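Fig. S4 source data, part A: sequence.
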Amino acid sequence: MEFSKITSEEFIKGILLGKLHAKCIVVGFNHHFGHNRVGDYEYLYRLSKVEGFRVEEIPEQDIHHETVSSTTIRKALLDGRIQRANAYLDHLYIIIGGLGKGHNIFSKANFPMLTVQLEEVGKLIPPDGVYAVGLEWGKGKFRGLSVISRSLADENPFGVIVQVHIIDFDGQFPDADAIIFFHKRVRESFDATSLESISRQLTKDLQYVDALIF
């Protein structure tokens, strides 16, 4: 059966309770789920009394006189408005993954990068561009610059690559996942037509990021 055809009851009982063994289900304000979006908080509440799990609803919030919902947050992220999304979330947007060898094009441009090894299927990745980021990796905390590109994704199963250049990195690779905190979108477009343009753009962007206080 296609996932979009799963009923609310099948989703809760078969997946959340049956496979994931959920003890508490948290939903956002006015959240709907299941085929034709018939499932909601009231449905979950009634079912919880029968199946023995807890259910919580996150209340509606207003930030800067705007109603904040998961749709509002998602749109801000997809538009690349990272600072607005962070305000909605009340924390920095993060991506977690191991760090591996960067895309060859950056090495050829003499601007070394590391690749964030995406693991979470369905993780919302911001649009292409250059971002000011912070990192927690192993026991270290760093500042850095991140490039997100779909045009350079090649055969990547996620259809997008997330590259990171770490400021003042000593070259020691800890055996741990990195947490990348997105602070600000520095550049909307990224010109990868030549090694010279890559080097010129990123050198300028790095100077800007390095001057930021975060």
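Fig. S4 source data, part B ends here. Residues 61-90 form one domain.
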